[in-house]
Amino acid sequence: MNAYLDGMRKYATFSGRATRSQFWLFTLIFGILNVVGAMLDAALGISNPDGAGIITFLIVLVHFLPYISVLVRRLHDIDRSGWWYWLGLVPIIGIIVLIVFLCTRSMVGPNRFGPPAVSLPDANSAGGGAGSSQAKVEQLEKLASLRASGAIDEAEFQKMKSDLLNPSAR
Of the candidates 75, 86, 83, which has an alpha carbon nearest to the alpha carbon of residue 113? Predict the structure, then answer.
């Protein structure tokens, strides 16, 4: 749900990067909302013969710009320009290539579009060793910036912080 809310908060932000999970979770929730909207249109009897109705139209209208922006940020994450979006207009081949791009693993480290997208930290990735305390500090800083930006609330922050500092408590 955080990926969807993050996509909606950055509805017109075409700079930066978005991870695979951020893009696909946003797409999944958008798809679910479309299905629910179509069902409501049908139940209320306000759908056209092709199945689309006013509720579905409003859902698509509200999500049009956020979807394009999260797609562009996803392309940035694999070091591709957002202009690759237009490849989807090429019948069959363009859509297939675009789907492959959207499924490609994120680039490690910064690229020309900025630092990697902030993903929720995994407590297990900060295992033992001398570097683990530095990794935990970096992950705590990321969590704090997510909380400060409003991407996560205080309760989520406290839970993730607890999971990070006490991985055995899971």
Answer: 75
Q: What is the CA radius of gyration of the chain?
A: 19
Model confidence over 128-138: pLDDT tens digits?
444 466 777 87
Q: What is the pLDDT of residues 14-31, one digit of tens each?
A: 999 999 999 999 999 999
32 & 87 share domain:
yes
State which residues form the domain around 164: 123-169
In the chain, how many domains are there?
Answer: 2
Instruction: Indicate the burial class of 83 (C-beta count within 10 angstroms; 0-12, 13-18, 19 or more).
Output: exposed
Domain shared by 95 and 53, yes or no? yes
Q: What is the pLDDT of residue 119?
A: 56
The C-alpha atoms of residue 71 and residue 105 are separated, in whole angstroms, by: 14
